Design the sequence.
């Protein structure tokens, strides 16, 4: 009797169990579907895509810049067979760079520090490599006059003519000079000097001071050392009246949400580029010797300089002073 009473319930119990299983499966599928609809994911095998600012590639036109980036990308990808997109992204404005990062059109972006200063608040980055010369990513700036000149200090340059070397590594030169002038209670560069011209070569920046055609020039210490090494007589006739601390002018930043495994492989290959002929060719085009990972802390003084500059030169409507947004074009003159 007990068996007779239990036998009809067994199929019913099985049906209940199947119903609960189906319900659980349906809920799980629904959760997975919801997650898939709300999470933006990148294709698993999407090739690496690097971006570079045209400002970092100063001295190159867009076609030359694309060729340079193709060479660099190939050098990074070929040794370890890292899939890479051969069509590089060259950004010409901050808006283009921001959009490329936002839409994940690029995985890493090489920019000047002035551009990174503006981009860092809108994009999450977590690892960084830096173009280096003689093993260092840092540069310092020198304000130079002729040895025979009566000029002894910043104050003495009021109303004088100055040349500022225009290049990616001098992107922090003018912000530094602006801040130094402000500390001395003097007007900003554009209003303090009678003319500001920006040659695209270090020698073209230094020689007019040597010949007495302009009163002062602003160049990197590294480029000045190169000029006087090739022309010792120039060094004997010039004098440094101010020098900056060391700053980091260039950076390549990787998106935080970019594949950690691929990111590590790319960073490792960046550090080895200088050991291959192909890599050396790419770095020669962008005028650097190595691309090395460093902790983000090395950018602290550079970002602090730009923060200070922004506070001093923010306009009444809240927009930032122009030199922070885009470096000045070569051979332009300010009133």
Sequence:
């Amino acid at each position: 009797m007990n068996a007779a009473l239990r036998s009809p319930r067994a199929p019913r119990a099985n049906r209940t169990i199947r119903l609960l299983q189906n319900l659980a499966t349906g809920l799980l599928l629904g959760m997975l579907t919801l997650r898939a609809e709300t999470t933006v994911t990148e294709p698993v095998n999407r090739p690496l895509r690097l971006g570079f600012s045209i400002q970092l590639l100063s001295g190159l036109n867009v076609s030359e810049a694309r060729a340079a980036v193709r060479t660099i990308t190939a050098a990074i990808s070929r040794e370890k067979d890292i899939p890479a997109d051969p069509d590089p992204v060259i950004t010409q404005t901050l808006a283009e760079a921001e959009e490329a990062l936002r839409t994940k059109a690029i995985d890493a972006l090489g920019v000047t520090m002035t551009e990174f200063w503006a981009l860092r608040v809108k994009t999450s980055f977590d690892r960084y490599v830096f173009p280096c010369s003689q093993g260092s990513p840092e540069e310092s700036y020198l304000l130079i006059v002729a040895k025979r000149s009566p000029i002894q200090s910043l104050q003495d340059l009021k109303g004088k003519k100055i040349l500022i070397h225009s290049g990616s590594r001098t992107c922090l030169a003018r912000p530094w000079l602006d801040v130094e002038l402000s500390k001395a209670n003097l007007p900003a560069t554009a209003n303090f000097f009678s003319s500001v011209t920006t040659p695209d070569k270090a020698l073209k920046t230094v020689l007019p001071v040597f010949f007495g055609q302009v009163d002062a020039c602003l160049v990197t210490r590294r480029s000045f050392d190169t000029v006087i090494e090739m022309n010792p007589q120039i060094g004997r006739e010039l004098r440094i009246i101010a020098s900056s601390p060391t700053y980091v002018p260039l950076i390549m930043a990787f998106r935080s949400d970019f594949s950690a495994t691929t990111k590590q492989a790319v960073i490792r290959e960046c550090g080895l580029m200088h050991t291959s002929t192909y890599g050396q060719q790419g770095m020669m085009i962008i005028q650097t010797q190595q691309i090395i990972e460093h902790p983000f802390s090395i950018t602290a003084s550079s970002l602090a300089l730009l923060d200070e500059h922004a506070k001093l030169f923010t306009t009444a409507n809240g927009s930032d002073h122009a030199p922070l947004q885009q470096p000045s074009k070569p051979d332009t003159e300010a009133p």
Observations:
- The longest helix spans residues 9-38.
- Confidence is low (pLDDT under 50) at residues 1-41, 316-335.
- The radius of gyration is 28 Å.
